[in-house]
Amino acid sequence: MTIELSYDRLGSRLKKIGDFELEYDMIGNRPRRLGKAELGYDLLGSRLRRVGDLEIGYDLAGSRPRHVGQHELEYDMIGSRLRRIGDIEIEYDMIGSRVSRIGDVQVDYDALGARARYLTRDDGSPLDQRMATLIFLVLVAFEQD
To answer: Which of the 8 DSSP states describes residue 127?
Structure first.
């Protein structure tokens, strides 16, 4: 089963991950809901702090996510690329610039290679809220940090 990632008309804002719609704030630049999960931010509104019931914790400087709920985040040796969220591995392409897999989900890009466009699960099953949340965190929320 191929799962499509849909973007707005300008192609800059992710609108849907399969059946999970992203709703944005009034200004339209900050996601506030992913499917049924409400997104919560810090007091300044700049750091994602919660997705549904999952709290997101940052390092002491507040610059890099360290855990999502009870799941620790693991980075590469340089500390620049996210390698794992709990037991979910994140893999990158040969150059190391684009995410190619998130757990059992293959990520394919558009013709220019700039935007993630399709997802394919190894077992062909549809996405659930948990996996849609992980995909959002890896491809959107933590990519901006």
So the answer is: P
Q: Measured between alpha carbons, how far is residue 66 from residues 28, 45, 145 in Å?
A: 27, 19, 12
Strand 71-75 with 116-121, pairing: unpaired
Per-residue pLDDT reduced to its tens digit, 33-92: 999 999 999 988 889 999 999 999 999 988 899 999 999 999 998 888 999 999 999 999
Backbone angles phi, psi at 15, to 5 degrees: -105, -35
Indicate left, alpha or beta for 59 from its phi (over 0: left) and psi (-120 to 50: alpha).
beta
| Burial track 34-64 (b if 16+ CB lie within 10 A, e otherwise) | bbebebbbeeeeebbebbbebebebeeeeee
Q: How far apart, in Å, do the first and last CA atoms of the chain sit?
A: 31
96-101 long-range Cβ contacts below 8 angstroms, 24+ apart: 99/138, 99/139
pTM of the model: 0.91
Name the nearest CA neighbour of 51 among 70, 30, 62, 36. 36
CA–CA gap between residue 134 and residue 122 (Å, rounded): 16
